[in-house]
Fold these 3 entries.
Entry 1:
Amino acid sequence: MSFTWAKPLWTSSQDLSEKPYSQLRTSTDVESLASAQVDASLEPEAHRKKTVIDARVISDAIIGLSDGLTVPFALTAGLSALGDSRVVILGGVAELIAGAISMGLGGYLGAKSEEESYRATYSSTREQIAETPCTAASSISSVLNPFELPDTLVNELSLHLSKSPHLLDFLMRFEHMQPEPASSRAITCAITIGLSYLIGGLVPLIPYFFVPREDVLVALCWSFGVMLSCLFLFGYCKTCFVAGWKGDGRVWQGVVGGVQMMFVGGVAAGCAMGIIRLFHNLASD
């Protein structure tokens, strides 16, 4: 039995391997690849599999918890000079409620401003594409130039993307760096920040519920220790949520994040407590 087809097949493969890569990929291949990549990058977030917690939610929780652990503690430390734990509890609860509402409203208004900025940029970009389509290619080139791609490839991608129905979304995401915010972003931000502030501010108040009214200094010492412990635990969990939980390196990163959070929050609370004590002493004199 003879295998007369083996040599021609090998020769054909060898001939293909000897051809330059640029000759093997036509402009149609490049455009198809670019279209697939752009379509995948512009796929709605709802259709993607989420494997981690949204970074914005973590950021909102950090803002709420860090403020909640430090600001109410400073207030309760100042009120401890009055020598009555009931006064500390009432003042701390009032501050918690007002602070949580204020922080939540601030987060809501901030998210709404972000949505308004996105809509304004989206509208202006759409008008620019409709009135001066020739600027689309230059905008695409300005996005791709930092990657030091070949000029021919940049030109082909610019030509294809300028005719793509996803051009507006591409420019919003990669030129203006403004992905479309979720419709529930404002509500989620307000609830996350407000609830985190309320939970974080309640922690320093807990010791005052379990001591006699006259033992305010004892409650203050316990409150300071509880606050530092919660700051470390929060910093550790925050870092591990982002970097991961497994591995010695990840554990060390969590410890560093916890110490950093504890140091920053402790310094802020200490400064606030010192200022309140200073004002109290000046008022007493």
Entry 2:
Amino acid sequence: MHCFPTLSLIIVMVALMEDAREMERKPSEVISDNESEKKQETRDEMLSRHRKEISQLQKKEIELKKAAARGSKAEQKAKKKQVEEEVSQLSAKLKEKHAKELASLGYSGNASGNEKSNIDIMVKAIAGVTVTSQPDHSKASKAQQRRDKRAQQEAEREQRIEAEQGDIISDRMIENKKLERKLEPLGLTVNEIKPDGHCLYRAVENQLALLSGGSSPYTYQELREMAAAYMRKHASDFLPFYLSENLVEGASDDSLSERFENYCREVESTAVWGGQLELGALIHCLRKHIMIFSGSFPDVEMGKEYKSNDNTSSPNSSIMLSYHKHAFGLGEHYNSVVPNVIK
């Protein structure tokens, strides 16, 4: 199913306009409702709030870019330009607002005409480094020099993160486009799963609910416990694969078994990511055929021995997942794959 070329663009533009109005509205609301509190805001409280507002804007930028990465190539280009222009305007307004608020506390270069002093103060504020109102002619202490150096390093780190984030977004767009071209002819689409470390199990839970036509017979936590219990019971089948990526030279058999047991405990009681080992356990626990689609790698089929038990060739009788290498900066991610009409 395809949308008209202008529909998704209109949606993004409307979202951007609403975000802009909200950004403009929030400062006035704070001033009108909490004017007395603002007068009492300390320097550190102000800098902390500035950092939060900058972080919120950065998160909003990522969300808007994700929303713009849909549709035809021409649509994506138009939406990307619209997002960049809007984010640039929001960023400029936020910087201007922060500069005025810092000036109200005396951190301004207007009196001396020294613009560099103003910029240094803003960099330190964004990096979370305490600033002082020492006279320009005063010699900086060693402690201040160290703070200045940390502020500069933090600012450079933020620039690197932004550059890396841009690469991640680009790789994610390419990966998602390839996956979309693969799923569309099959009448399938990706159902986004929360990226909280439980994504594999939540995706399987979503699939079980879809197959049952109601709620899943198992929660994601129960699926974790089932996978861990199966791996313990069949340790001889899983231990070689576990050791292939976790081998420590000179380790005794007892220590290897203990490490594998610790790993199983993590699977059932923490948010450690799930992968091939856990999928290998789940196919036997659930006695289900699992199909894993990817935009970066060839598709993977697991549990073929259970495929014939369904007495049907329909893909809807299998658990269908998608693997994303570039979904987030933290690492791999799993989503649920569902019929297009359901999403």
Entry 3:
Amino acid sequence: MPSTCSGSGSGFGFGFAPILFLSLVVACAARPLYPLPSKVSHGSRLPLQTSRPYNIAHRGSNGEIPEETSAAYMVCIGMQVNLLCNFICLNFNLLLCMSRVGNKFIVSKVTSIQLCALIWHASFSHKHKKEHEEKKREPLKRELTSSKLISCPPKMGFLYASMTSPLMTQLTLQIIRSLQIVERTYDVQGVNTTGFFTVDFTLKELKLLRVKQRFSFRDQQYNGKFPIITFEEFISIALDAPRIVGIYPEIKNPIFINQHVKWPGGKLFEDKFVGLLKKYGYKGSYLSEPWLKQPLFIQSFAPTSLVYISNLTDSPKIFLIDDITIPTQDTNQSYWEITSDAYLDYIKDYVVGIGPWKDTIVPVLDNYLQTPTDLVARAHSHDLQVHPYTFRNENQYLHFDFHQDPYEEYDYWINKIGVDGLFTDFTGSLHNFQEWTSPLSKDDGDDNSASKLLHQNRIANLVI
């Protein structure tokens, strides 16, 4: 069973939250984070716990703060999260971003979801520089004469929609127009996608933009407050935490990136990505001493990318699994193929676990749970962990079986299905559930025991 880093400290109190958020607005919008990662020494820090399922911050505490921003990650660290999840890409210098097509994230434009990841500060040939100055901005296919990794974090929040979407702020539109950046169309995984791609922006231009909450039904008060962050800035947040906090970066659409972006010496996106992790001390197999000091899981939907990376680092990797209707982006294998016993037996040589969409583990019909599949049991029989995604507090994401109570959902997945980690938008809720139901918090005869409080105050504590 993987670990959750709950620590012994409690989360932020309700009264302190507004002050914290205000300070984050100021700090994250104004404080230069370079050079990174931080060299600050915290002495002896609380370790990552290995006694219960991992609390994985899905793009930070994005149920409350615009996702993949420094504020979103700092807040969830205060909520005792174990692992910070993000998405890695490239831009014009070179950096790519993610976009949403229906319910699927793809690498591409600065439209429907957010931005960022690895940023390469490149020295282009005179021809490329001239093209950039003239705003011709040829997409991808750029040969780099030399490159320096400034690094930029994954898909760190930012525009979340197209030019015509109400989610995009007028300020963002004005900035993009002032930069004379035009919409382009790319073939991404067989889908012609039109929008604003990060490959058409420089890092300096990207830093002019501000993040907006993606979901209209979530708190909008922090819109326009935070810039995107680089991968090194993301790493620094984890390394600067007062206790050990791991990172869980996803290599986003590596096949697409490697088709269009060429590095000197035949290097691939994966080579550059792993090189950066090693540069800042991320190494070691699962639960090894180096890993426990700087926990890391590398995730991807592309199995060939994970196999390639396994030859570069022994750090643990997670194979992400999409909906049953969506084949793998690189090998074009069906859901049924990649969840077969034969495939699990093959992939276990390269990964320590799988990360399926939760509705493929327990099918849903008319918003009611159906009979659970045996995927978790079979994965465990192959010594693979299971980290499903994504858990959210809002009613529209809670199946009727859970009676609009996210704690009931956590109880079901942890205690009945038996998963080893959970990607959640509300890390505080998951932490509270685990604290209140932990064997270490059992009733000792006190009327205010955790188990009683869980039921007495469940409604009052639905949203952290």
